[in-house]
Amino acid sequence: MKPCSFDYVRADRVQDIFEAFEHYGQEARILAGGQSLMAMINYRLARPKALIDISRCAELDYVQVRDGRLVVGAAVTQAKVQQREALAREVPLLQLAFPYISHFQIRSRGTVCGSIAHADPSAELPLCLTALRGEVVLRSKSGRRTLAADEFFTGMLMTAIEEGEFIEEVRFPLAVDGCRYRFDEVAMRRGDFAIVSLAVVASASEIALTIGGVADRPVTRRWPRSADLPAVLAAFAWDLQAQSDPHVSASYRRHLVRSLGQRLITEVLDETVS
Amino acid sequence: MSSELVNETGPHVGRRAARIEDAALLTGRGHYADDVGVKPGTLQAAILRAPYAHAEIVSVDTSAAERQPGVRAVLTGADVRQWAAPFPVGVQQPMEHWCIAIDKVRYVGEPVAVVIAEDRYLAEDALDFVNVEYRQLPAAVDPEAAAGAQAPVLHAAVGSNVVSDRHFSYGDPDSAFEAAERRVALTIHYPRNSTTPIEGFVVVAEYLAGGEGYDVLSNFQGPFAIHTVVSRALKVGSSRLRLRFVKDSGGSFGVKQAVSTYVALLCLAARKAGAPVKWVEDRYEHLMASAAAPNRITTIEAAVHADGTLAALRYDQMDDCGAYLRAPEPATLYRMHGILTGAYKVRNLSVRNRVVLTNKTPSALVRGFGGPQMYFALERLMQRIAVELDLDPLDVIRRNLIPPDAFPYRAPAGALIGSGNYQESLALAISRGKLDELLQRRQAARAEGRLYGIGYAAIVEPSISNMGYITTVMSAEARAKAGPKNGAIASATVSVDPLGCVTVIIDSVPGGQGHRTATAQVVADVLGLAPDDIIVNTELDTQKDAWSIAAGNYSSRFAGAVAGSAHLAALRIREKMARIAADTLRVSPDSIQFADGKLHSCEAPDRALRFHRVAGLTHWSPGSLPDGMQPGLRETVFWSPPHADAPDEKDVINSSAAYGFIFDICAVEVDRATGQVRIDRYVTSHDAGRLLNPALAEGQIRGGFAQGLGAALLEEYRYGADGSFLSGTLADYLMPTACEVPEPIIVHLETPSPFTPLGAKGIGEGNNMSTPVCIANAVADALGVADVRLPLTPSRVHALLAGPDPEPESDPARVQTPVVQAPSPAPGGGRASAGGDSLHMAGTVQLAAAPEEVYAVLMDPDALASVIPGCHALERVDEQTYRAEVTIGIGVVKARYQAQVTLSDLDPPHGLSLGGQGMSALGSAQGSGRVRLEPQDGGTRLSYDYDVAVSGKVAAVGSRMLEGAAKIILRQLFERLGRKASGETVVARVSWWRRVLAFLGIGR
User: In whole numbers, what is the pLDDT of chain B averaged over residues?
Assistant: First the structure.
């Protein structure tokens, strides 16, 4: 389990990234925390010619509140965001979801943007970004483009990143007054890939439920608070086209969407009524 | 509660002494096999492994690999055939197991070639350049099917995959079944799993000059009978196979017995390279191809009286030992043979044992070794008897337990149980574990509609295997011909040097249990010293130290056999020193006491001799020794337990020297919403005889419990229907972590064994045997179901809860915003199957071109090349076959396949069969199926129905993603087809993907 040989480029400046892209073209990969990428490289599932390490790029190491959003730069670890004192107030959904992201050792190295770029359908951060209708900023030598989360995730491990682009930052909208946020997840063990993960955003008028781990990317559905919950959940569960794997049947995934969705949303509705 | 000790008690044995081992381990100064230095010039090996479960090897071409940078040699089957022999096998069958595949590969991961290079990176790089041509064969995967007449046969000369089939009868089971008031039967499927060490296999091998044979450093764990197996495979005398060991181990758990296969392989690699060669197994290799416990199918039946008393038991057991019978297999099936009646006094027993081979990794020793499988059947049966007879399961157990006055008790199949008080163990567990509280909780939970259950397991834990038990697989006649095999020899050496310092050498090659600590306690007590005064060395060297065939770290033999041998060797030292002291003090040797580093006599209380002075005399002044006494102070004891006889002509076998007892209680709550099992309380009551160090004993209990819990809830090596291996990472083979393992309540009772020197029985494997079935019984009680299969994953528990999976409503207008639309597997039909079978994909795509145009693309090689995703080159082989080079990429994962594309069953323009198969460094992939084209809305409705099979690394490490990946590739293929047919240019760029999604209605 040793990787193929590759060039290592440490990008201390964004300019270094562009130069490396120019030199290596499609064969280069961005390395941030390396928590998914290095395992795949060691298994030789991925054989990039070069890794561009952005973990020490100061220009990408920022977390700030800007225009009603929590903005996280590409070099920022998950631990750094999780440890933000105001996180529960700023983006409560993230605060609820972080403890489910693997284990603290991995959050200490793994980056927020790295998880978004990897686009694992079971990962918590893509789920949160989708649930909150956040944005991804892609930067290339010719400029920037900003994509909504659901434009960015295009399938299992697939994103809208094109050649010559990297994620510069992701933006999570701040909590809205009167909105409630809930998160739940079932995994085989603590910290494992989600079998099903759920994020609920409840406003005064509607419920939005986002499901991870079932379809090939996080998927949101919205309905009025008065909707017939079991019926809506049953339909949603089917529409996600759950897949089976050696541990989990599709039918179990549908069941979790219904049963945990019911539990989580009933909780929110009860709470706002009382 | 009895705690009477067989031998006099000292100040150290029985105490919770801190581990001597830990100072080095906790400060990062352990000596593991991979850490110790190697000779300059030592090369590194990487092993090329079979991507197929069953295939003929047509050719192996190493020339390109040999030209790669840093490569020094490549070992193949041809070399091995020249220098070595197959391993001796435990049953008389014409089948050969070599340390490398010779003519066929029979499991995914079987070694096919070894690249020896200057470093491991270069060696792995060169693996891609070893060209092996395979002819794939159908695989035998399911053991029941493999045992049938229609199954593909692994070893042609045997003619069947069933390589052993034996029947046994003890007492009069047939009459008992005929006369039975009730019969209760159950079929169980015990999964293939393992007990996984943190440290993988390590071998450093050298081929010595001058015909001196092989020198090997490894983390092999015994039994040392395997040393003879490896010497014979290497065609050298056993003194020419020197095995050396290191101080520390990252766990062995039985699995490290299987290092032996690689010892032979690496010896030959070193011979080929003409230099020492080191190989360190990585995690992927370990999970795929090291060893596993055989999965077992058992039909067990009891003849019972109405009160639940057993009249007879009948076992029909079938072990799936994988592709080869690797010594000491099929020992897993026979280790428990003498004790198949468990803790119960039933006298009538019938047994059928079959060994079947399948295209899986060869099975091997795994902690618990036969016990988990056997007790899963027996203790599930006891629970079923209670349910079917409407009795309290605890009463059924109590009514059948061997009574306390029956010891020593000879079980019908031969186990001679020296001591025990099972009723007392039950009482302790029930009172300390507060069973009444759990029963109340269950009542309260059920009243609220929650799922709460309580399970029990009463098991006898054998230890110190009698080497003769393995021969029970042979008929009495075959045994007579082969010569007797029995005993369980342990050895220990105690020496005292010129300054009176004590060194002990033992033969247990520990896996981290703390053998050095316990041995120091034992020897210190005999010699009146402190444990700190004793150095215990476990770094065995087969050319220098005492060992015999039973040496090693297995069958929980340390406390009873090895520590006992150290005790006996220390007694000999004491005897000699007492004679010297008696001579000096002019008192009788019997009056000499050893305490506080001094020797004194009750006959001369005012005079004492210091320990080191007495010992020193044997070195500094042999002339002063009593007449006739030899100089020096070093004693080696070989000990074998009493009653460890060979099986008799009626196959009665005392399969172990000592038998402990465990009674476990488990209470669980199952979450109805998620199917997750939460352990509310786990109580485990042990009688391991005399405890040498309760802290070490409890370490064994906690570790065994964690592994037992893993087996119950998480762990299984999974295989696809084609034999592809699906558990190649620790995200696929799930071991429990600290978060999943609750703290058990541990209770001890000590009834010393009359058959071991210190009265100790083994305690190393009991919870591996009791915990899986105890948890299963609790879950069965919670759910009220009979067929409980491990591991009880949430998904599987949910299936047992059997909630409805409501069909989707037919009216698509029921939702505000449809999320995902075609192409998709049709709901309800044609969905991908779960659990490791080949993937079945079906769906439809709407294409803009007419069926004739679509069909034309498929018939035109150039057009076809532009349609197949990632196709670099397409070359026509014949009318319906193309050779292609295809790069398939999903996210960061990329693989370049040498592929063949086949068109058949042509039915222009309505449909055809379109298949592809390919091979890459990541393994093989194939898809075949029917494509139908129907005109619709001016275009074509393309429907597909595909079976996809993936083997090798992609299957092993990516099973979670396989279905998603297959879906992506099929979508890409058919969408490109549609656009090509309608005259668009197909350009493979990532941005194109978004257009596809928009087209498919997915991208929003």
Answer: 92
Of B727, B833, B953, the CB nearest to A43: B953
* Angstrom distance (rounded) from CA B293 to CA B368: 9
Tell me the average pLDDT across A40-67: 96
Counting the structural domains of chain B, the total is: 4
Query: Alpha-carbon distance B418 to B406, whole Å?
Result: 10
| Torsion sign, CA atoms B425, B426, B430, B433 | positive
- Residue indicated by tokens 């370490």: B699
Residues above pLDDT 90, as percent of chain A = 93
Does the CB of A89 have a partner CB in chain B at under 8 Å? Answer: no
- Contact across the interface for B893 and A157, Cβ inside 8 Å: yes
pLDDT of residue A273: 62
Interface test with A, best of B672, B960, B962, B995 (most A CBs within 10 A): B960
- A27: nearest Cα among A183, A213, A163: A163
Task: Report pLDDT for B631.
Answer: 97
B997 pLDDT above the threshold of 80: no
Contact A12, A57 (CB under 8 A): yes
Residue found under tokens 């199954």: B151
Confidence band (pLDDT; 50, 70, 90) for B4?
A: very low
The neighbour count for residue A39, using CB atoms within 10 Å, is 15
Which residue range forms the structural domain that includes residue B226?
31-137+201-249+255-289
CA dihedral B968→B972→B978→B984, nearest 10 degrees, is 150
pLDDT, tens digit, for every residue of A172-185? 999 999 999 999 99
Of all residues in chain B, what percent carry a pLDDT higher than 70?
Answer: 94
Contact assignment for A252 to B799 by CB distance below 8 Å: yes
Number of helices followed by number of strands (H, E) in chain A: 11, 14
The amino acid present at B341, given as its one-letter code, is T
Which residues touch B220 (CB under 8 Å, ≥6 apart)?
B226, B243, B245, B256, B257, B259, B260, B263, B509
pTM of the model: 0.94
Q: Which is nearest to B946 in space by CA: B926, B923, B918, B968? A: B926
Q: Are residues B635 and B660 in the same domain?
A: no
**b/e A121-146 (16+ beta carbons within 10 angstroms → b):** bbbbbbbbbbbbebbbbbbbeeeeee
Among B233, B266, B289, the domain-final residue is: B289
Phi and psi angles of residue B669, each rounded to the nearest 5 degrees, phi first: -120, 135
Residue identified by tokens 């991208």 is B1003
- According to CATH, the topology of domain A7-53 is 3.30.43
- B49/B124 same-domain check: yes
pLDDT of residue B437: 98
Domain A180-273 CATH superfamily: CO dehydrogenase flavoprotein, C-terminal domain (3.30.390.50)
Per the omega criterion (within 30 degrees of 0), is the bond before B808 cis? no
ipTM: 0.96
